[in-house]
Input
Amino acid sequence: MHFEFLLEEESAEKVLDNILPQIVTGEHSYRCIRYQGKQDMLKNLPIELKAYAKYITSDYRIVVLIDKDRDDCRVLKNRLDNMAIEAGLITKTNAQHNNFQVVNRISIEEIEAWFFGDADAMRKAYPRLSKNFERKEKYRNPDAITNTSEVLEAFLQRNGYFKTGIRKIEVANDISKYMLPLNNTSKSFQVFWQGITDCLQS
Output
């Protein structure tokens, strides 16, 4: 099985490069393709998907990962599914008998929520973080945190890190290299990881 991961930014690529080797192993392979932000991705996806439709084989899976931000999750998911269908590809949502080619997944509301979903990984990356911060109501449900990247920056700064401003790519790499996907409490991460698992079992 070969995966093509279509991503909106470099920080997402850093995360996947650190966690995918835990599941995409042996005869499986992957490649990450990143865009210059969400709008660039949405603009170019229809063209890219039509190009894929011309040559991908049965052992290819395209995984699209995009941040929810302020969008309606269902509307954004439908938009992505429709792009794939219009390109002549079969999405996981609309497939029968696991014959899908495209898996569309949304990080809610931003990929930084996935970091809050693995508090142990955050503490290993930044040891000064408090021992049980994930038990506080503010952080208990990672996907419910609004303005996730800003919350993460403020949290790290309060604990003595990145006083001059967060460096997103560095943080993504620092935390994700310690992440254990099966332990992540972010629902959107769990759905993403299950999508990859389903691909490998299809």
